[in-house]
Amino acid sequence: MTTYxxxxxxxxxxxxxxxxxxxxxxxxxxxxxxxxxxxxxxxSIVGGDVASGQQVPSSxxxxxxxxxxxxPVLTAYSQLLAEGYFETRAGAGTFVSxxxxxxxxxxRNRDEPENKGPGPRCVSERSDLAPARTSAPWTYGSGxxxxxxxxxxxxxxxxxxxxxxxxxxxxxxxSLNYGDPMGLRDFRETIATYLRTSRAVHCEARQIxxxxxxxxxxxxxxxxxxxxxxxxxxxxxxxxxxxHALRMAGCRLVPxxxxxEGMNVGAGKKLCRTARAAYVTPSxxxxxxATMSVSRRLQLLDWARHAGAWIVEDDYDSEYRYxxxxxASLQGLDRSARVVYTGTFSKTLFPSLRLGYMVIPPDxxxxxxxxxxxxxxxxxxxYQAVLTDFIAEGHFARHIRRxxxxxxxxxxxLVEAIREVLGSRVSILGSEAGMHLVITLQLPAGMxxxxxxxxxxxxxxxxxxxxxxxxxxxxxxxxxxLGFGSMQAADMLAAVRRLREMLPxxx
Length: 507
Hints:
By secondary structure, the chain is an alpha+beta fold.
């Protein structure tokens, strides 16, 4: 279909005679034949695959090569002539226009980056602070030990699908219009009732803001509560994407160490007593799994009150505790309206739902609503309405009860397998709650958990290196965060044996 006849000159292939780009004709496509021919030529010209001044085949010749009638070819050529991509020369034929600018038809080495524009392609320094989408395989891998994966096969799909269909049939003018930046009123009433009864949160519906998962909640809180260069306490180790949200807001991070009682408030005061906010996971510290003690909670609230600081409580998976009742929220102890409480349905239902919530102190509601409106106007309404019924009809509570038992079984199987296969080589942390646990270990000099995690990913083992959750430049413990939500209990022993093969030989 495409013929080339020429030799390389100065790094560029010189072509003699008419040249046809690769044109894939799809007779079953909805796009007309003439449009397919037009688009093929236009792409080739703009992309530099067909050079300025190059002759193209006659309409009769191209129609023969493509095995189509001449009419669609004539129609395509006519459009290309009208738009200036082609030109005709009396007695010579049809050519790619010689007057097209070089920037439209670049002649370049395909191994070199394409010149994207006439000047430097400047972007903000802030965008450089965001992590690459696929920088680490354990952040997106799905399989043994992957963190954040759920027991999707135990989700009540028939009930959920029925509710989605019910609300999809109820579409009206109101549901298609822009909504309240805070979210649907009925949904917020339902969330407020749930939080008051299950998490001991002091709230009313007017304080609830519906967000796109806890990550948006963290981002909004940074925008509203903090100015650039202001210091904020963060747990060390802690949730990496939370730190990125603060960095992109221009905040200065103050890493506060974590022990078996949670964030060390005394250490935080020594590091920076005048911090403007503290970001904490008190019910189930990420990643180590500690529960913040009552004394630490009261210390933190006292510090915030006297320092005029804010506390952002990330309660990301408090529904899953296996050796005690769910821990009451930090916000429920707050008497100075200094706590912004955040939660999500990503761990209890499924991540792609992208529904979370914030409980905002009353005097900050208008400020948060204004910033939210600038960010994305309002949350989508369909799944809010669906989840309102899912909770009100009791399906959510039943789902939590079933999955709590399921995850408890899987957690117990993993702990037993680790003890049987790895024994005293590792210490187990944070197995009392959530859908992950941590193992720590001593590695030989020069070996790092990051290196092991990269090697394990090639064998479909998704070991999240513990050291990556510490701030850069700090002394980090070596180990792995192991998710167990999506793994069958019967598969735990074999998976841990594969993990053992990734570790250095034990002496």
